[in-house]
Amino acid sequence: MSDEFGSHKDVSENLPSAHGAHSGDAVQHDPFANPGLPPHEYRRQDIDEKAAKHSERVVAGLFTLSMLGTIAFIACFVIFPVDKIVYIFPFGHVSALNFSLGLTLAVALLGIGVGAVHWARTLMSDEEIVDERHRADADDELRENIRQQWITGARESGFGRRKLIRTTMYGAMALVPLAGVVLLRDLGPLPEDKLFHTLWAKGKVLINSNTNKPLRPEDVVVGSLTFAQPEGLQESDEDFQQQIAKAALMIVRLKPEDIKDKREAQWGHEGIVAFSKICTHVGCPISLYEQQTHHVLCPCHQSTFDLSDGARVIFGPAGHPLPQLRISVNGDGNLVALGDFAVPVGPAFWERS
């Protein structure tokens, strides 16, 4: 309390000590003393080999379940189509493929995880060992000690002695990565030889992409640039974008004396030549034509091709010329293809010879 002169008196002097009754105990028992480790309690598997064998069979069964889960994962990936929908309570309508892949992969991973935990809890050594703190750098004695601990741990785990567990664990861990490898299949359909072929074939009429009418030689004048597509290809087709990305065509008419490449002249018709519209750099559509120089320019990265000289590259990052389509005229007077492109269109790819 404080008097009128501002002096203070400690009122705690008159209060009984809250810890007085336990002060003697505090002196006798250090609360910060090291309590040590409790006595080691042996598990049933440590003293009963029959119980240990049972645990071994349980672990092996879990690893085997993991293997079956991985095999089921791969089977479901093959069996169920992407668009198959099924009703599963309580989830409702779900994708059969996604549900089966998630379920089987969970079984595969859970089998390995639970098997490893059960192995550690029932068969591996569980005796706690105290290791005093040591310097960060390891001397030869410490390294030898760690090596001996590793050898002891491996021996106590029974890894070398319990062949059934070891074999099934190897099998489970070897099969699980296959699930990830199989998922690579979903990156897209296998190209097979689709990159080598387009819709162009012998007798296919060249259709003007703007008018949707067959192209006739008199429709193509010197200095003009016309775009064409194969007969029968419609914008309403489900795969129109995929097909036009390979079959899009550029039609130009040059004076026969301006054509430098002999084969180009033979593959054309009265100075009319047809080249792929797809740039050989990254596949951009080419649309810029210089009438005086007979050059076409890709707007994406400025690759330039000379249409009077086999569409060879004269500037830019493109790696090879534009493929030429051999054309002629049919009995109706329409321009037609005499086959497919001789080489794949568009950018190069590693399978290309």
From TrEMBL:
SUPFAM superfamilies assigned to the protein according to its UniProt record, in alphabetical order:
ISP domain
Q: Which residues form the Rieske domain?
A: 241-336
Provide any one GO MF term from the record.
Answer: 2 iron, 2 sulfur cluster binding
Q: Where, subcellularly, is it found?
A: Cell membrane
Where exactly are the transmembrane stretches of this chain?
Answer: 58-80, 100-120, 164-184
What ranges does the record list as Basic and acidic residues composition bias?
1-12
> What keyword terms does UniProt attach to this protein?
2Fe-2S, Cell membrane, Disulfide bond, Electron transport, Iron, Iron-sulfur, Membrane, Metal-binding, Oxidoreductase, Respiratory chain, Transmembrane, Transmembrane helix, Transport
Q: Which cofactor does it need?
A: [2Fe-2S] cluster
Instruction: Give the source's domain of life in one word.
Output: Bacteria
A GO cellular component annotation here is:
plasma membrane
Q: Which CDD domains match?
A: Rieske
Positions of the UniProt region annotated as Disordered: 1-40
Q: Which InterPro entries match?
A: QcrA_N (IPR045603), Rieske_2Fe-2S (IPR017941), Rieske_2Fe-2S_sf (IPR036922), Rieske_Fe-S_prot (IPR014349), Rieske_Fe-S_prot_C (IPR005805)
Topology with respect to the bilayer: Multi-pass membrane protein
Q: Which family does it belong to?
A: Belongs to the Rieske iron-sulfur protein family.
PANTHER family for this protein = CYTOCHROME B-C1 COMPLEX SUBUNIT RIESKE, MITOCHONDRIAL
Job of this protein: Iron-sulfur subunit of the cytochrome bc1 complex, an essential component of the respiratory electron transport chain required for ATP synthesis. The bc1 complex catalyzes the oxidation of menaquinol and the reduction of cytochrome c in the respiratory chain. The bc1 complex operates through a Q-cycle mechanism that couples electron transfer to generation of the proton gradient that drives ATP synthesis.
What quaternary arrangement does the UniProt entry report?
The cytochrome bc1 complex is composed of a cytochrome b (QcrB), the Rieske iron-sulfur protein (QcrA) and a diheme cytochrome c (QcrC) subunit.
Q: What is this protein called?
A: Cytochrome bc1 complex Rieske iron-sulfur subunit
Q: What is the organism field in this record?
A: Actinacidiphila rubida
